[in-house]
Amino acid sequence: MTRLGDSVRRATALLAQDLSSDATVEQLLTETGSRRYMDLADLSAKDQAELIASRSVELLPGAEKLAEQIEARRAEGRGLHVKLGIDPTGAEVHLGHAVPFIVLSRFQRMGHDVTVLIGDITAKIGDPSGRTAERPPLTDEDIARNLSTYREQVRPFFDFERVRFVHNSEWLAGITLPRLIGILAQVPASQLLQREDFRNRLAAGSGLTMSELIYPVAMAIDSAELHCDLELGGVDQLLNMQMGRRVMEIYGQQPQLIAAMPLIEGTDGSGAKMSKSKGNYIALTARPDDVFGKIMSIPDRLMVTYLRAWTEWTDAELDVVSARIEERSLHPMDLKKVLAGEVVSALHGQEAAMAARAGFVAQFSKKSFTDVETLPVVDVAEHGGEGIAAVLTKVLRFTPSASAARRIAKQNGLRMVVEPADGGEQRAVVLAEGEALRPLAEVAAEKLAELDVRGSVYLKAGRKVAEVRGL
């Protein structure tokens, strides 16, 4: 078994355990965190290709072709030449920017040759991808200032000591007009204008400069000058990277493969991508407790997406936790704390991650309902024979209808909470949708036996809490 296979086996065993336990989570973070530095050269070409494909939105022409290329380069005694281009257009970097570097690190640890291209020429043009208007051009001073902090911010996810850095001014600054026209003459204008963002801007009467129009060609020349085997970038760069294949053919070269990374949705759950302008981002320079708290605020549906993007978990491990949530043996809050710990650990170290976890629990998870004097009360002697959904609707008026109560249960928001008489930590159990229709007294008795604890009992529906008396 490979080193990665051994690690997955150990982590899978931990994922089957109680993920509300600090000890278990700490072991898990140690195991999965060590993979960020793990040598992956012992993986077969097929396994390497599948590991890259599992994190790509598009892998062109496909995983099989990537495996073939890896095998071919191994036969030549070398690895693939992989390129990631960045235009340093801003000084602050967020977690969305880290995604391609995490995958690039995998290529690095698989034994491939990695080049990071600094687009000091193309940054002055400005990547038009997804833009609704022209962007003010950057100066050399802007680019240098932005680049000065970029490396340090991304460093937790990538080994910058094992990478070749180049600037595309090395060749683009000296390209002659006849040479540029010779390339452009073989690129159909319709191919450049097929971009939806260009069409939208023209339809809206917005400006579109010639420099923006030829930006994809300039970026494509980079791939040809570097003789790339594969280019990696965000899926918003897909058309630009496909232009790289076209221009490499013009140069008489074998077209590069393309690995397009996902654009990560922001923390606010609006569906918009993570962006500084929208304020739905997590800066790589944020303090550990801020990172932890922001991740704890995300919608549950983003947990697996974020785990896939920012950790070294495999699809098999993601399937394990997804199945546990589906069968209600794992509470989403516990998985979200693991995710938050993974990200803080990557940025600030495991000690900081566990401290942030403890701080969050102390602030939010150990509140005592016993100290709240205004909680509504439901008496089992009077309402214990009624279904929980009916109690929530007719007695407590927490929900407008029984179907609304069932929806809360379906979303894992209905819980029975016990605060032990000895002052110990709260114990909670999630109530399934079917249990919302059963009598309150019957379900409460079962859950108290399951938790094996005595104390004050509460019914929690979303953010609303009521004390259950008479048990």
Structural overview:
The chain is of the alpha/beta class. It contains 23 helices and 11 strands. The protein has a 6-stranded mixed sheet with strand order 1-6-5-2-3-4, with helices on both faces. Strands 7-11-10-8-9 form a 5-stranded mixed sheet. A hairpin with a 6-residue loop joins strand 8 and strand 9 (427-430). Helix 15 (288-296) runs antiparallel to helix 18 (332-348) and helix 16 (303-310) runs parallel beside helix 18. The longest helix has 17 residues, at 332-348. The two termini are 53 Å apart. Residues 130-134 have low confidence and may be disordered.
Structural class: alpha/beta
Shape: elongated
- Residues in β-strands, percent: 5-15%
| Biggest sheet, spatial arrangement of strands | 1-6-5-2-3-4
Query: pLDDT under 50 segments (min length 5)?
Result: 130-134
Number of helices: 23
- How is the biggest beta sheet arranged? 6 strands, mixed
Q: Return the average pLDDT rounded to an integer.
A: 87
Strands, total number: 11
- The first-to-last residue Cα distance is 53 Å
Roughly how much helix do the residues carry, as a percent range? 40-55%
Radius of gyration of CA atoms, rounded to a whole number:
27 Å
